Amino acid sequence: MSEGGGTVSEPIAIEAKRITKTYLSIQDEIHAVNPITFQIRHGEFVSLVGSSGCGKSTILSLVAGLIPPTSGTLRIFGEKVLAPSNRLGYMLQQDCLLDWRTVEDNITLGLEFRRQKSERTKSRARALLQELGLGHTLKLLPSQLSGGMRQRVALVRTLAVQPDILLLDEPFSAVDYQNKIYLEELLMNVLSKRKMTVLLVTHDLEEALALSDTILVMGGQPGTIRHTLKVPKELQSAAPLESRSKSSFRPLLNDLWKEMER
Amino acid sequence: MKWLNTRLTRGAKSNLHARYLRKHRLRQLGVHITRLTLFILLITGWEISSRQGWIDPFIFSSPVRIWTLFLQMSTDPAFYQDIGITVLETMAGFILGTAAGTGLATLIWASPFLSRVLEPYLVVLNSMPKVALGPLFIVTVGAGFASILAMGIAITVIITAMVIYNSFQSVNHDYLKLARAFGANRRQLFCRIIFPACIPDLISALKVNVGLAWVGVIVGEFLVSKNGLGHLIIYGFQVFNLTLVLLSLLIVAFLATIMYLLVSRLERYLLRHR
Ligand SMILES: Nc1ncnc2c1ncn2[C@@H]1O[C@H](COP(=O)(O)OP(=O)(O)O)[C@@H](O)[C@H]1O
Ligand SMILES: [Mg+2]
Question: Where does the ABC transporter domain lie (chain A) (predicted)?
């Protein structure tokens, strides 16, 4: 995975070498991930697709340093992952906004945890909120926002810590189609201005194809990578909605479907 | 009649809305009127049966007698002392009990090992009827305020700890995942996510504890029997002045209701954003 967004000269942002994960409990052991190896260069946008339960979220949790791999090694910018790295931003399907805090205090949550909260970082977070078109919601509570707006606030919270790597676990799955497209556009806009590596988990093949440089198709239980798809340059450079209307989009989507069903 | 109709439809946005409002408010009015009638019937029924000798006035007293006693006692400063001390003991009991229970829950949350170790102890302590500890309190902290307070706390602390610990554990795991991905340590996790997320449950515990603390304090006063409303009840019983017993009971019911309403008010204030 060296073409696409990340060129060969870029450092390797995420490197997984034969990682596996087995969840252990008293009653059972669940093999969630079979040996998986991949490399993602800095600046690349990679999607992880596959049927439910094939271990996509597990891989994200492993990269995030939330759980240790059972075997194999994981490196982020050359450093072995032992705990959540400061260079990561993590976002889930659920917006997880704290409903007792205003939007302003929600977007600085990550800064608080990392002890980076200062006037400078706070105003940067506010500027990001403005950039995503929510400047007017600063003093509102999450309960006063719509689902799409909440997810945008969650995105701002993730970006506020200035991550080099974005880990997104089905971030746009819970919002309606229109909002999803809008959020995708916003995300791509943000990415065009800041260099970030993105690892996106999604079950939405259209989304994967419209956004990514590379798609990793996972399958099986325990899951493993079955296929790697390089997205053509013309789709990579097109905006999410525009991309969906390109002539090469449908055939590729069909190929992906077949890969998934295999 | 016209006046009533305009009152019933006040603030209506349309004819349809007016009909809805009239129906709703009429039902509401019906409830209030029935409530009041029931109250009056009960009181007069009680008074009449007592006067006619249908019930033993010596045992069941009567509303007028209770009221007369109340007026008579309300000139006596000792009466207010009795009320004051009971209210103080109850408030201190449920506030300290809730605080101590929350503290205990925090402690066992902080150490999963400790939580495992303490689990059977908590279960046993929780199943135990706390009022049975009364004599133990009296011999250890003396037959007075401290014993009664101890009873008020004992009756609330364990159940609070169990409920709150449960609540700590039921916080959505995605929130914890997210916070940990941001590099939060356990302390930050607790102070910024878990504890604030459990405040609604904490307030529910407070509401339950108000009632429990009253039980603890009244039983405590039965045992120690120096002053307070519990003492008045026991004293009235001993001298067979059932009017005094009933008066004290009514005052306890009144104060307990007020306290519950205050906590409800506090709840609405604290949760106004949620
Ligand atoms: N914390 C956990 N404990 C035990 N088993 C788990 C845990 N998380 C996930 N699993 C199991 O691992 C497998 C992969 O899950 P997951 O990574 O969530 O898949 P996906 O995100 O692709 O739907 C599933 O069989 C799931 O039941
Ligand atoms: Mg998942």
Answer: 14-245
- Look up tokens 């065009």; give the residue: A192
Q: What is the pTM of this model?
A: 0.88
Counting beta carbons within 10 angstroms of the beta carbon of residue A231, is it exposed (0 to 12), middle (13 to 18) or buried (19 or more)? Answer: buried
Residue-level pLDDT, tens digit, chain B, 274 residues: 788 888 888 888 999 999 999 999 999 999 999 999 999 999 999 999 999 999 999 899 999 999 999 999 999 999 999 999 999 999 999 999 999 999 999 999 999 999 999 999 999 999 999 989 999 999 999 989 999 999 999 999 999 999 999 999 999 999 999 999 999 999 999 999 999 999 999 999 999 999 999 999 999 999 987 899 999 999 999 999 999 999 999 999 999 999 999 999 999 998 887 7
Q: Which of A88, A96, A143 sits opposite B175 (nearest CB)?
A: A96
Contacts of B192 in chain A (CB under 8 A): 98, 109, 112-113
CATH superfamily of B62-272: MetI-like (1.10.3720.10)
Same domain, A111 and A57: no
Size of the A and B interface in Cβ pairs below 8 Å: 56
In order, the DSSP letters of A216-228 are: EEEETTTBEEEEE
Nearest ligand, CA A54: 1
Beta-bridge partners for A89:
A166
Cα A201 to middle of ligand 2, angstroms? 8
Say yes or no: CB of residue A30 within 6 Å of ligand 1.
yes
Q: Are both A176 and A71 inside the same structural domain? A: yes
Please give the residue range of the domain that contains residue A128: 89-162
